Amino acid sequence: MGQYYLFKTLEMTLGFLPKRLCYFLASVMGAVAFRVVPSLRRTVTKNISQVLGPQASNSKLNKTVRGVLSSTFKNYLDLVRIPRLSRKKIIKMVDVTGRHHLDKAVAKGKGVIMFTAHLGSFDTAFQRFSTFPTQVTVVVEPISPPILLDYVTGMREMHGVNIVPAVSGSLKQIIKILRKGETLLFALDRDTMNAGMNSPFFGRDANMPAEAVKIAMRTGAALVPVFNNRRSDGGYNIYVEPEIDVEYTGPDAMAHNVRAISKVMEKYIGRFPDQWVVLESIWNGA
Q1: How far apart are CA 32 and CA 98, in angstroms?
Q2: CA 166 – CA 229 distance, rounded (Å)
Q3: Domain spans of the chain?
Q4: Helix H or strand E encompassing 85
Q5: Within its chain, how far is the Cα of 79 from the centroid?
Q6: pLDDT mean over 16-45
Q7: How crowded is residue 162: how many other Cβ atoms within 10 Å of its Cβ?
Q8: In 53-185, alpha helices (H)
Q9: High-pLDDT (> 90) share of the chain, %
């Protein structure tokens, strides 16, 4: 319940402040967390060091880790500011590149599975999907307690994006959505269901989510990469890439498809490592 009341407090206080001031406060909180929460700093440092590689200097590594923690707080503030957004403002603040790739995939009529990473401002940028002709449903990790899940879901759905928590029984709903020719969105950079498979990720094996790939192989739905980043001017970019060339048969089909997804995620996480807001260990043994 404490998290629920925290979000309500943020919405009723910081949610009304100018965005620039909110982001300044988020940067301060990120710097403080870097100093006073060593366990969190160590976990994020291990993840980011794998992304940056051994050639990265300590100063660059620490700066990027502080950026991740600041981005985390910015994302919380972005979430509670969703009720203040209008459809017109969403269109103005979020630029989309490659929209035709999604339109082409939707036109095939078998449904689309968009995939992304916990990158940029997930909640704010993807409100832009509410302006697309295809209905978009975001599959999210369930949150406890239920009152907090309902509260966060209500904000995320405010402009027309649907939310489906990945819980027991949700697979039937997901398949139904695809059979209607609609679009799903999964974040595939963290195996939250412990049902993934080992695959190279930034040069080292990690347990990567595989459920969305299994669904695509079963239904024929297109797998379309989509990523976003937060811009320095306060706006957001969404990048839609051409659909993945899915393999459907053969002993290595699943491994091929998971690796293809990982490669696209590497591209965008590598471009914006300070906005990759994963606070849990990703790599085996990390």
Answers
A1: 38
A2: 24
A3: 2-275
A4: none
A5: 13
A6: 94
A7: 20
A8: 58-81, 87-93, 99-106, 122-125, 146-156, 170-179
A9: 81
Q: Do the beta carbons of residue 243 and residue 223 sit within 8 Å?
A: yes
- CA distance linking residue 63 with residue 96, whole number of Å: 28
Sheet of strand 162-165, all strands in order from the earlier edge strand to the far edge: 94-97, 236-240, 222-230, 112-116, 183-187, 136-140, 162-165
Distance CA 133, CA 107 (A): 11
Q: 153-165 pLDDT, tens per residue?
A: 999 999 999 999 9
List of residues 6+ apart from 208 with CB closer than 8 A: 188, 189, 191, 196, 197, 198, 199, 201, 258, 261, 262
Q: Each residue of 221-261: pLDDT tens digit?
A: 999 999 999 999 999 999 999 999 999 999 999 999 999 99
pTM of the model: 0.94
Mean residue pLDDT across the chain? 93
What distance in Å separates the CA atoms of residue 70 and residue 27, rounded to the nearest whole number?
A: 5
**What amino acid is encoded at 147 in this protein?**
I
